[in-house]
Amino acid sequence: MSHSGEQQTIHSYDGIQEYDNPLPGWWKWLFVGTFVFSIFYGMYFHTGAEKQRSVYTVYDEAVAANLRLQFSEIGELQPDNATLMKYVDDKRWLKVGESVYKQHCVSCHGPEAGGLVGPNLCDNYWKNVKTIDDIAKILENGAGNGAMPAWKTRLHPNELVLVACYIASLRGSTPGKARAPEGNEIGPWTLTAVAAEEATPVSEAK
Ligand code: HEC
Question: pLDDT digits over 11-60, tens only?
């Protein structure tokens, strides 16, 4: 850049002087513009028209959409004994159950399901559960007068079944922090005869 003919500023520090080269007007206004924009965008982003447009919401929506895509592979799972017994050992689909658990259940049942506000879900003692499908029923309808929320309308039916399977699969694990046993001791999860007869092939749909 040539400085010939340009003015110098009037100050001089220890003999060091500088040319008077102000930023162009458009540049300054662009800067002011970004600032003004940020105020409105901030308001829009946090409280704006499409409510809750936070990164988390967008992420959750993307995950849910992805899940639904995967679910097309297994059809709609029924919250019955046979279906639960089938998926309780299915490592791949239990991952989906685990992610539902991490997202919605940790706050009350603890990161390893040893219990916090809600009971320990890893031991042999249960308050509302006798058979594996009771877990799905509790999830659908809640328990303890709402202390355990109902999830029927808040989870995809498959998420509900798979998180029930995940819980069932934790039985016998030893969480670091565990609440004392509550309720009655029950036997191992079994395929009940009635359920075996009634078993609908919905979950087999390919
Ligand atoms: C707001 C706290 C809270 C959240 C969130 C919560 N639970 Fe619970 N849960 C409870 C309480 C409290 C109970 C005990 C209800 C009772 O006393 O009968 C319970 C009971 C249960 C039971 C029955 C336990 C038994 O011994 O009969 C299961 C299974 C269960 N929860 C699973 C889950 C799963 C899976 C999730 C996540 C989808 C979840 N809970 C989320 C508080 C919660």
Answer: 889 989 889 888 999 999 999 999 999 999 888 877 765 555 667 777 87
Residues comprising the chain, all counted: 206
Judge if the beta carbon of residue 156 lies within 6 A of ligand 1: no
Distance 145 CA to ligand 1 centre (A): 11
Structure tokens at 27: 């540049």
Closest C-alpha to 88, from 190, 192, 7, 200 = 190
List, in order, residues 6 or more apart from 127 with CB less than 8 Å away: 119, 143, 144, 182, 183, 184
Domains, the chain, ordered by start: 8-47 (no CATH), 75-204 (1.10.760.10)
For residue 143, report the distance from its CA to the centre of ligand 1, in Å.
7
Q: Is the CB of 105 under 6 A from ligand 1?
A: yes
pLDDT tens-digit map of 174-186:
999 999 999 999 9
Closest ligand 1 atom to residue 135 Cα is 29
Pocket lining: 121 vs ligand 1, CB cutoff 6 Å: yes
**Cα of 135 to ligand 1 centre, how many Å?**
9
